Every structure is written in C-alpha cells, then in structure tokens.
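## tool: complex_structure
## caller: assistant
## args:
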Amino acid sequence: MTDTFNKVEDIEIRLLLDALYHRYHYDFRNYAMSSIRRRLRQAKEHLNCATISAMQERLLHDRDMLPQMLRYLTVQVSEMFRDPSYFLAIREKVVPHLRTYPSLKVWVAGCSNGEELYSLVILFREEGLEDRTLFYATDINPEALSQAQAGVYDLERVRLFTENHRLAGGKTSLSDYYQTGYNRCVLDKSLRRNVVFSDHSLVTDQVFGEMHFVSCRNVMIYFDRTLQDRAVGLFKDALPRNAFLGLGAKETLRFSDHAAAFRDFIRDEKIYQRTSA
Amino acid sequence: MTPTSQGAVIIGASAGALEALSLILPALPADFARPIYVIVHVPPDKHSMLADIFAAKCKLQAIEVTDKEPVTAGVIYFAPPNYHMLIEDETHIALSNEEEVLFSRPSIDVSFESAAEVWGSRLTGIILTGANHDGAAGLKAIAAVGGTTIVQDPVTAYAKAMPEAAVAACPQARVLSLPDISSVLQGISL
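## result:
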C-alpha cells in the first residue's frame, strides 16, 4: 500500500460522499475520516467492488444500494441500559428535577435500533413519569428506525440487558416488558404509546421543539469537530435553561464552541445542564 | 510545522501489559518529542486505572482519551475501555463504537491501521506481550507505509502469542527485549 494509493483512495472517498449527498441527500461529508475510511473499505470488500469509485458508480445508478451503504456508514451498536451508571444517575439525579415539570419532552437523538429509547421509557415508567412524557426518537437510517419501532431483539442479548437494567437501579423486572418466541424478545407495544419516531438528521435538519432532556450517546463521535459544533448547537437551541443533555461515556463538550452553554451536572456520567449562556 | 510533525509512537499490549509498559514508559524523558498512543486490552467496564497509574509513574503526562482529544508531543494517550481509538489526523484522536475486532474493543489493529494512514513512515509501531493475535495486521500496515516496526522478543514476553503473531505477519520487525525497546525509544526522540 503506497502513499499514492492512499491519496487516490481519499479522493475516491470524498467523491463517493459527494455522490451520496447529491443523489440521496445523506450528508456524511463532515464525518470523521478515520472511521469512514475503515467502513467504506469494509463495504467495498463485502459488496465485491474493485475500488471505491466502482462502489460509487453502483450507488449512483442503483437505488437498492442505498440501504446497504447506510448500513455500513452508520454504526448500530448499542445495548439496553448500556453504561448502567448513566441510567442510575438519570434516575437518582435528573429525575427529581424532571418531576417538577407538569409535562416533559425527551429526545433520543440518533436512536439507532431503539435500545436506549426503550431503556429511558422503562426508567420513566418505573419513576412514574412516562404518562406526562413525550419521547422523540430520531435517526437518519430508515432501516434502524423501523427496527426501533418494531422493538424486537435477539433473545441472546436479553441476559445482558437484564443485568444492565438491574445495575441501573431497575425497580421492576425487565421481563415485565417483553415476550419471547422464535429466539426473539418482543418489547411490549405499550412502551411506544408516548413515542414519536422520526427521520431527522443532526447534520442537515433543524430543531423541532423545546426539550427537557436530550440523550445523544456515541452518535457525535463519528462527526468531525465542525459537525459536532453544529449538532451541539441544535441541542443548545432545543434545551431551555436548566434542561439536560446526556452524552456517551468518553464524549465531552470541553472542546466544543458551545461549551459555555452547558455546565457539568454529573461529570462522570457526561450529563450536562443548560446554562443561561 | 506542527509540534508533533516529527512522528509518533504507537504501542499495543494485552496480557502482561502493565509490567511491560512499566519498563518502557516511566523511562521516557520529560522532553520526549512525540505523542505516544497506547492500546491495552482492558475490560469493557467504564473505568480503567491505566492512565492514572502511568501518570503517577511517568515524567510525561498520561491521559485516557476522550473523543476528539487534541494530540501534542510528549503526552501518552491511552485508549479508553469499550471504544476503538482511531487516529483521525496528526492533531486529533476520534473514538468509535464499532463492533469488536478479534473480540477486542479497543482493537490494536484498528488503532495501528489508522495511525499508519496518518503518520506513514514517521510512525513507530510496537507490539508487546499478549495472548491473542490482535496487532499483527496493524503492525504489517505500519511496515507497508514505511514506518518502523518493533516487537517484544516473544521469549521475554509474559504471553507469547501476540508478539509471535506480529513477527509472523511482519518479519522485517526488529525483535527486542524490553530494555532494548526502551533504549530505542529514548533514541528516536532526539
């Protein structure tokens, strides 16, 4: 692998991302390059394309390529109650504040297959807040959104979900919320009664309402710094003073242009509170 | 010229990492002129003590990486548990939650390959003790871009599998004892 080859490949990557944007309006142009490069190489290999340019040609002329491409370009890795201490902190420290509002709006931005959304709905139900809460679950990948809407997961993952739920201070049994069959766990549809699923891009779309809590974990790690500033800017606009923003365990607002608009609420859990800035 | 443009060092280790790194990192001088990325297989729990342990032992600053961490020379960057550490460019690190690679997240291969893209021939890659094959493909990628490759002599390693796999994948790598690796590192900083 020579330097020349790599430079050509980087040009091909940029061209493919341009093509994806102009043809289908999915904008990955400001995603972090290191991860995009890795995933496009995987896609190239699995889709049997000789080059990334060849993959671009198929993408432009064959609409069926789009869902496959999105599967590679978006990362769908999550768990219910992933990082249980995050959910425990929401339960113990954030919920008491949320209780003081007569109605609540929660936005799970980049909800992927829905694991985190359902974790929050269950937590809110356990805490008696579900009935007054409207949850917005958004993602750019239609396939992931329909997965989230279906709420069906492999049964083998349930043991981990159950353990996470317990560590997150669960007050009920996770098995109260699902039925099993055909090696699947099917979440109770009542968990979706206050959820709105919607296609929304942190890259190209605007804010759609005022929120009390935004949870956006391990989504912005795939963005470059410019794009991160745009997304955090949306959260800043969506969150009034004292509202909350939760990020992934190794994400931070420290490097953000909007750092002053937030203060650490629970530092170790990356839960921030909106300031008046 | 950015302060780090002379090059970078990347180290991967697994079983026995703490002892091996303890013979290398604390010996580095305070004016070491390159960033050092370190990937150790750690359990996926949220907290790893590695950065704290080495911050206390080393003359250099040691930190656990946060997403988009700015990179400067003379700092040791530890990959955090449960994320891949990708070298985004010479001055930033990006984290990723992609699937485990060879049952590992962080994966040594993922970090090494991304570092090879960014640093090319100015990169020194080092594989230490470990009990699986992670790092072999990554070291090969560093050799392919003309970087320097070093492997801990498997005979001296707490666990041989990882250095053996690295040597097999990258036969041009220098095979050295830990004290010799330490001397080489102190030499390249000049």
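## assistant note: Chain A touches chain B at residues 1, 3, 6, 32-35, 37-39, 75, 77, 83, 85, 218, 220-222, 224-225, 228, 248-252, 254-255 (CB under 8 Å). The CA atoms of residues 86 and 239 of chain A lie 20 Å apart. Handing back to user.
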